[in-house]
Amino acid sequence: MPSIFRRALLLSAAALPLALSEAPAAQAPAKLRLRLLETTDLHVNVYPYDYYRDRADDTVGLAKTASLITAARAEVPNALLFDNGDVIQGSPLGDYMAYSHGLKPGQVHPIIAAMNELGYLCGTLGNHEFNYGLDYLGVSLAGQNFPSVCANALKPDGTTLVPPTRVFTREMVDEAGQKHSLRIGVIGFVPPQIVQWDQANLNGKLTTIDIVEAARQYLPQLRAESDVVVALCHSGIAGGEPKAGAENAALHLAQVPGIDAILAGHQHLVFPGGDFANIPGVDAKRGTLHGVPAVMAGFWGSHLGVIDLVLEREGSAWKVADFGTEARPIYERAPDRKIVSKVDAAPAVLAAARTEHEATLAYVRQPVGETKGSINSYWALVADDPSVQIVSNAQSWYVRELARSAGMGDIPLLSAAAPFKAGGRGGPDYFTDVKPGPVAIKDVADIYLYPNTLRVVKVKGAQVREWLERSAGLFNRIDPALTAEQELINTKFPSYNFDIIDGVTYRIDVTQPSRYDNDGKVVAPEAHRIRDLAFNGKPIDDAQEFLVATNNYRAGGGGNFPGADGKTIVIEAPDLNRDVVVRYIVEQKTIDPSADGNWSFAPWPNTAVVSYVTGPGATAFRPAGLNVEPMGNTPEGFTKYRLGHAG
């Protein structure tokens, strides 16, 4: 959308002759225009580069976003830049720094060095800031030439980990050219769930409180000290009634008095935009949450968030009289599905991280073994899949000895794993695709994206069943009576919550409603999608105990899965799940990835038109026994298939 500053410039020029010939009857109140700029969920993406595929990528990179920042600043006299968290983890560059290079006191993390080139006013903490521990985070923050705030992450003594709020005084210029000293108050928030997701790093060291509760605690004083208040909310936008401890609380935060603008994130989506249409309290076109201007700038540097505030002086105070919001992209997709870059990378930002970028390339190219076949995730949401199977195999291989050493070798062992790269908001190229031949660290990182640590939980057969019911929420309900097209995948359900449990066999009946909603709450108590659940060829015993190999996120309560709430953990392994996969491949030397077919769909009528979208590369890797029929391409660049009669 055109900036309100550009519209105002044209209006001012048109009115100039009148202003010269006629004196105003009364002096108009001072009007000042302030632009707020946001980056969010950068996840260590400095370069426009895909380390997993070892090639340039014009859809990512702070170096590209930096050019949008320069252009946005040049359009206006007053602009302030903020970051909304998830900075130091999320790409192989982040893992290289944490696990190979290290970060000693006094050293500056490469993503921080890149950000220091851009003149940020303030930042906040994202949930992934805690993945490498508090000491590592502390060194990272010390390298910033800008402060960070967070109001709801508390140390054992009750004080916040970083300051909850900050007030910055900056000289601004109004429309008449007069200078004003403007006080900008900033408050930050992180999802309270960090204490579950990173329990090993934070237990006994950090607690959290609800985002809205923290806002109510700190906003009155911040408002009193500020002319403008900006909330850096590393939390997404979700409708419904407010819930204590909500992960995505930006909409409810907007109802706390005193906030002039909200910079949101965490969901890796874009706002304003269609992702949030039809949510009460959300204006997805104008970009407001309960009337408060808000923006969410995608992820990995894909967009720059822009909020333009028009401030008018009322006595000694400034009030927001008008506003505009937009999320500016660094690229667009042409009709032929090709990526068209809209900006060049900023040389100074590239230079700030060049040494570590080149070292990361050498790091991820190191071979660890070989694979006889392709490992890809194109069909991982609709068929048992090699990219998930290899993770399950590695976890089981690793845990067997641990279980024996812990005196639990007689308890049956299962393994839970999910597809991480499965298209969705990541786009039509966001799939694992490892070619036959040497397997490098970059390939393992492509299979297992996150720096999770391995955990083992002890549950009963009934909890295994409910775990799978929760996982089956990935699918929309297919109405067997309809003949119109029905999309199979619930696009609001993250693929990393689609756990496949290896060691049991089962079918999923998608003609039944989902027993759980997207948040893990039982909404259809009578519904059961999981059919024919069996262990060793016999119906599973609901009372039998099982060990399930998984990761710290899931075991600690991430995703709200039955049997995984942090209380059922019996083994806390010292190794990352990704490193377990590396060690497994090193041990095997050569792997031959193939899925064991332990799950499938229950039949639906062959009159039902059930559609599934995947990447264009999927054609060459159709799983045996999966009946699919091409339906063309989508405007976003995906390829659509009709899934034939299952069973």
UniProtKB/TrEMBL annotation:
The segment(s) forming the Calcineurin-like phosphoesterase domain are 35-268
Record's signal peptide: 1-28
Q: What UniProt keywords apply to this chain's record, in alphabetical order?
A: Hydrolase, Metal-binding, Multifunctional enzyme, Nucleotide-binding, Signal
Query: Is this entry keyworded Secreted?
Result: no
Tell me the compartments it is located in.
Cell envelope
Record-annotated 5'-Nucleotidase C-terminal domain positions: 431-562
Give the required cofactors. a divalent metal cation
Q: Which reaction does it catalyse?
A: a ribonucleoside 3'-phosphate + H2O = a ribonucleoside + phosphate; a nucleoside 2',3'-cyclic phosphate + H2O = a nucleoside 3'-phosphate + H(+)
Q: Does the keyword Hydrolase apply?
A: yes
Q: Which family does it belong to?
A: Belongs to the 5'-nucleotidase family.
Task: State what protein this is by name.
Answer: Bifunctional 2',3'-cyclic-nucleotide 2'-phosphodiesterase/3'-nucleotidase
